[in-house]
Amino acid sequence: MSALLRCIAGLLLLALGAAAMATAPRPTLRFEHLSVAEGMAQETVLSVVQDRDGFMWFGTQNGLSRFDGYRVVNYRAATGKPRALSNNWVRVLHLDRHGRLWLGTDGGLNLFDPVTQSFTLFTPDETARRGNGNRHINAIVGDGEDGLWIGTNDGLQHFDTVLRRFTTWHHARGDERSLSDDNVNALAMDGDGRLWIGTGGGLDSLGPQRERIEHHGSDLAPRASPVHALMVDGDARLWVGRLGGLERRALRGPQAGSVRRFGPRDGIGPWWITALYRDAAGEIWVGTHDDGLLRWRGREDTFDSHRHAVTDRHSLGDNQVSALYRDRLGTFWVGTWYAGVSRVDLGSGGFARIVRRDEAPDTLADNKARALLADGDSGAIWVGTGTALNRVDPGTGKTTVYRHEPDNPNSIIDVPASALARDRAGRLWIGSRTGLTIFDPGTRRFTRLPLPGDADANNVRNILAGEDGFLWIATRGGLHRMDPKTRAIESYRHDPAKSTSLADDIVRPILHDRRGRMWIGTFDGLDLMDRASGRFRHFRHDPYDAASLSHDEVHYLFEDSRGDIWVGTAVGLNRMVTAKDGSVSFVRYTTRHGLIDDAVAAILEDADGRLWVSTTAGLSCFDPESGRWRSYTSADGITEGAFFDGAALRTADGTLYFGGFNGITAFDPRAIRDNRVAPRPVITGLAIFNQPVEQAFPGLLKGPVEHAESVTLPPSASVFSLEFSALHFAAPERNRFAYRLDGFDEQWVQADAGKRFATYTNLDPGTYVFRVRAANKDGVWSEQVAALAITIEPPPWGTPWFRAALLALALALVYGGVRLRLSGLRRQKEQLAHQVGVRTEEVERQNRVLERQAAELRDKEGRVRQQSNELARAYRALQENEEFLRQAKQRAEDATRQKSEFLANMSHEMRTPLAGVIGMLGFALRDPVLRDNTREQIALGQANAQALLAIINDLLDFSKIEAGKLSIENIDFDLHAAIRGVASLFEEGAAARNVGFEVKVGPGVPHFVEGDPTRLRQVLVNLLGNAFKFTTEGSIKIEVERRDDDQVRGEGWNMVRFTVRDTGIGIAPDALPRLFQKFEQADAGTTRRYGGTGLGLAICRQLVTLMGGSIGVNSVEGKGSTFSVLLPLADGVAPPQADNPARAPHTHRLRILCAEDFPTNQIIARTMIEEMGHLVDVAADGLQAVAACSRTRYDLVLMDGRMPEMDGANATRVIRAGGTPDARVLDTHVMIVALTANASLEDRTRYLACGMDGFLTKPIDEDALHAQISRAIERQRARGVELPPMPPMPAALDAMDAPPVAALDAMFGVAPEPAPPRPVPRGGGLQERLRAAFAADLPRRRAELDAALAAGDMTEAGRVLHGLRGSAAHLGEAGLERLCAELEALADAGDAPGLAAAGARLERHLAAFQDA
């Protein structure tokens, strides 16, 4: 009883499984095409056959074609060539039992001879009065022996292939035993030897005895009854294809003679049937005249239809089918009337493609399958596509489409339908780019539900119906958790200030694993969420850790049956490994391991534990147990192109679905199979010097090369090539080869289908064997090897007889040579005996001489050895002296460097407070209410400070020169104007001293030259300053002349000499040699009397040397001195002149945006801009700047480099790109100027590279700001932008008599403070306002810095320190500015310990502000 119950339960399970499987889609046929473009004789393929060698043959309307998988060889009729094809219209191809190829043409029966590549024609001997219809052959079948049954347009023929004799049958009017019609279209032989004949009048048959023809009538109309195709299946049933449909006749058994006519219920209409075929697997195929290809499903006794689809290039080539054939390797061939031959591999695959069919009414809305979800137990699936929501029946392909209707609330909220989920109540949730839609299957009603937040927060990418009853919604604007009952929503977003917040706002996959953990995939890594606290733990890619995530862009998360979590990213697949201590690491899998592409889209597991991974280039199957990969592309039957991230589904029956750009790929993993039939390799060509062997050496081969076993090449054939093919047509382009020439190649040479040839040159004479193997597209290698023995004949001089003759000649020559040599030796022996006696006496005499010389050499050797020892001692002394000098030189260089560094550091430290003194004095002089005596005292203090600054500048310049950090620029300038400018500095002083001052410029001095005007001015000012310092009476003269005699650089150069003469105190002769040395003056009394550092002339000498010139002096003590400078200056051009004079009022008013996050800096910038008369708005970060540019069309943007939310560089890129989708910038070409405390060349290059147009350093230089605004005015006017004119400025602001404070600011690096604004709200000065704003903002900045340091966010820490540095510069806090710059450098370098160590110093500086 229990066994019976188990049996019943098993049957029920099988029934349920069968019902589930019934819904699975059937594999789709993926056709490849071969037509005229690939070399076919013509596009109408009337017949197909495969010969014994494996070649495919196609009969067309314009000849015969042979195909080896890569190359087509065509045979055509040729007039005057007796052994050519008799007629180009080849209707029938037949391979008899001996492997001979017979052709039925419109010119008779032809037999192909593969050895001679020729044809033999056979025609019946009938009277010409019947016409040539008996030569128009429509069908050929074998009679089971050595005969052929032939159907023609004029009766039935039998051809005895041994006796070469025809027997004919015709229609005879009134004779019931004759054919019903002479037009015989089809023939078939059943198992009993009866021949079935399809004619224009219906169905006939002829018994084995050939006594009489029987007629088998039909109840069809005469127009529909003609038979065009016949086929007998394995169950002894005759399939009859008529002009009006398909029928099946039982030939044996109790139902013998019964006829079933197929109709629309079977999937076939009253169509014209043109071809019937039963393949080796028992499949029945039906070709129609207008309705494509039909495939009979034996179990259901119905037909599947395969038609040509214009939108699918892998569908059937044409709907008019003319021939059907399946080759021995599993490839099915369909000859069509207008599109050549289509082929499909039936030996492998198993994939189904669900795509939109334009000709079908109930089909997918479009092919972009973004989301997939099973529809409960119905077997249907929900598909979210780019334009609609679809409910698809996979078994039939019928689809219900739900589209977005903007004015209909009972439709989905928007498209695409990019996410699908089902809650516990059975409701369907659809995510799109503007929110959610709820679909109630019971009421068939849609409810729209927008999500809180911005547009990104409504752009839904994924929905997870969690086991906790909540819906987890992934969007481009964060993660939402929704209670589907109350619709209450809690959102999680990325917060830069919180390290435990969501890693990124762009969220895609969500996984709730079996351990209760919630995993979130973002575009910035993988997050593990603590749902109780809302905190996130981050896992990111580390380029230095191979066990980290392979990439931060996470596309898919999957937990397999073993509990392993798999992470699909933009660069590879990752298996998560959790250690016992809770630490997480990852094992990576990429294309190097076998993955078809690194960009993973989705992951599914089949019933056997294998993982299926969709990517942007295809599917990969991974077996974790064996570690093996197998990949599939569109050539294997999957959809073409990439797959969408997350678009994957496994249904209850185990069917896997993957959505892609071009439809859905569906399959049963256990039904996926490879083609296990190995190809037959064949050698298809032999070429000598790239010329076919038939042309190079006619008659060398007795037949085609594929039949040859050996070939002998003459000596002249030193370069030959062999071409080979693999006769496997499933995917010839993916076949592989291995070839080897025995006797030459040591190993097998691997090659793909793109290199199907091997070339050999200059082989030695001998015999070699060329062997080639092949593998099909699935890597199945053939055991069979195609081989060809190649013998290379030696040249005439390499033959044995030639070598024998050459050996005999050599022996004769040797014998004669030996005889001559012996006689010569005898004569030489006698001569040598005489010479030996003479030489012996001479040698004895020379020996005595040599003994004397040897004694002398021994004496000299002793003296040389003594001298060598002395030289060695001297060399060691020199080495010790050289090492002492090297160390002394190193100490001197170290001392010089330390001194230069000390000077540079001291100069910088002194310049900073001095710049503040000069700047504050400048601000005081701006006050229009100062009393005259006060103004005079302040001006005197400013002059003294400037003098002190000149001394410091000398020290700083000299330290730069010695450090090699001072560079000379070459620009075009006006030399005459430069000389006049230098002279104007001393004219007033000369008049005050009552000293004559004359400037003389020679006639040949060029007007415009190329050089460094600043350094030239510095040299001349120094020399004239010394002249006025040491001259109390008399005169001073500066002369400039062009020295042609000193010209050394050729054309385009000018040697210009500058001479300064004075009648001062002169220089003593002993002081002249050290006059240009550093810290030197004529004597110590000079320093006490006249002052100075002693660096001026030393700097002059260094600058002149850097400019390629020379400096000299002539002096007579008590009478005066003459200094001359000779410089090479290249010809120049007139430099461009600025349109607006410096600090001239602007002509037009601009609207300016200042993006700056520190209030102190905001006040400075706003005050300066408003003082110049312009309108200014302030944005606190880059995001606000982009938003402001989307609301207002600005004329100029001042952009801080480092800001929160979005820095200046990224904000500039967004503005140049047109803004964001929600905030489009009004003017993408607005002028943007960087505003930053970083003044290095690297920072300038980086800001300009991101799209900025200029650069301003902090503290802001008023002149530089004025110049950038002038550029903005010129730029806007050049663009045609209408600008309002500048209104008249109040008289209080036009203080033209004020000193050039901005010029001093630019020189000393001190930010100019604007004059007090017209309305001062609370009576405080600008400096007090700045310090108050800085102090008020300081707690927030300190909190931001502490949070960044706690989170280890060095980028955020650097931004805060950068802002503090700029504010400190504006406030004149040099110590705080230097400390912030130092800490910013540590943050940029990622030195967290260094930052922590310096934190106390920063706290002490900032505490002073908060205490105040």
From TrEMBL:
Q: Which residues form a coiled coil?
A: 840-905
> Which terms does the record give in the GO molecular function aspect?
ATP binding
Signal peptide location in the record? 1-22
Domain Response regulatory residue range list: 1151-1273
Give every HPt domain span.
1323-1412
| Enzyme superclass (EC) | transferase
UniProt keyword list: ATP-binding, Coiled coil, Nucleotide-binding, Phosphoprotein, Signal, Two-component regulatory system
Sequence positions bearing Phosphohistidine: 1362
Spell out which residues are annotated as carrying 4-aspartylphosphate.
1200
Q: What is catalyzed by this enzyme?
A: ATP + protein L-histidine = ADP + protein N-phospho-L-histidine
Write down the SMART domains for this protein, in alphabetical order. HATPase_c (SM00387), HisKA (SM00388), REC (SM00448)
* Domain (Histidine kinase): residue spans on this chain: 905-1131
**EC number(s) per UniProt?**
2.7.13.3
Give the InterPro entries listed for this entry: CheY-like_superfamily, FN3_dom, FN3_sf, HATPase_C_sf, HATPase_dom, His_kinase_dom, HisK_dim/P_dom, HisK_dim/P_sf
PANTHER family, A to Z: HYBRID SIGNAL TRANSDUCTION HISTIDINE KINASE C, TWO-COMPONENT HISTIDINE KINASE
Give the protein name, as stated in the record: histidine kinase
Source organism of the structure: Massilia phyllostachyos
